[in-house]
Amino acid sequence: MKRIIITGATSGIGRELAIQLATAGNKVGLIGRRAEKLESLQKEIGERAFIKPLDVTDLEYAEKVYKELIDEMGGLDMVILNAGVGVDKILSPWKADKLTIEVNVLAFAHGLHFTFDYFRRQGYGHIVGMSSVASHLASYKAAVYTASKHFISNYMTGFRQKAKRVDADITITDIKPGFVKSEMTENVRGMFWVAETDKAVRQMIKAINKKRKIVYITKRWRLIGIVARLMPQFVWDRI
Ligand SMILES: NC(=O)c1ccc[n+]([C@@H]2O[C@H](COP(=O)([O-])OP(=O)(O)OC[C@H]3O[C@@H](n4cnc5c(N)ncnc54)[C@H](OP(=O)(O)O)[C@@H]3O)[C@@H](O)[C@H]2O)c1
Q1: Residues with a CB atom less than 6 Å from ligand 1
Q2: Best mutation site among 5, 6, 7, 13 for ligand 1 pocket (most ligand atoms within 8 Å of CB)
Q3: Rg of the chain on CA atoms, in Å
Q4: Which domains does the chain have, with CATH numbers?
Q5: What's the rounded mean pLDDT across residues 68-72?
Q6: Which of 86, 119, 195, 202 has its CA at 20 to 30 Å from residue 15's CA atom?
Q7: What is the pLDDT of residue 34?
């Protein structure tokens, strides 16, 4: 049994991670802004679920909430930093970019810092971050989203190096999904190789259990990851 905090657990990938990890016998500490969704998820999962409504961009309050969840679960073995926003078409372009940076970059970095310090003091722990295949791309259609996911992957690589230099057994897993069914992808057009949420999450959990460093979800997206890294920028600029 592991004690696992999952951010962004109210829908999509995070919700399915909560269900599958709790079904496997783990305690899950669930975070998201929508309290009613957390409550119904807790009812569905039962006593292994611990819930805290939280906007992860409220950094000071977030730290308090992480500590409360850790106390309630009796400790922490793993965190899954999954909360994220996609391309926002309602806000003005700058407000949309700012929000993405606040959630996907700032709150992510804060969660990683907090848990890394906690695990360093404890002597062990596992940090899982939800990046994307988009971390390898730059796109005029989603400049801030792709940049934010590049930050997440790059940041985790740095922390993985840092983990080797501290006196603690800390694993860092970078998950790079392609397209997965969720609220975020509900109205996105032009998607391909779209994975069912439960299948994608089964593959994620398998990789997490194996303590993999980087994993593409579903597996075939590794190909796109390779192509994205090898393709010259001038070719991307024309796509
Ligand atoms: N679906 C895909 O194809 C895909 C591909 C690559 C990467 N990803 C990544 O996977 C992660 C999960 O996304 P998803 O596809 O499952 O989309 P989703 O269904 O929209 O889930 C996003 C989750 O993040 C939470 N969240 C957003 N802003 C938050 C905030 N300020 N504070 C706390 N929680 C917040 C949402 O909860 P509340 O709204 O209740 O706060 C929700 O639970 C994201 O990081 C996304 O970038 C998804």
Answers
A1: 7-14, 32-34, 37, 54-57, 82-85, 103, 130, 132, 177, 179-180, 182-185
A2: 13
A3: 17
A4: 3-236 (3.40.50.720)
A5: 98
A6: 119
A7: 98
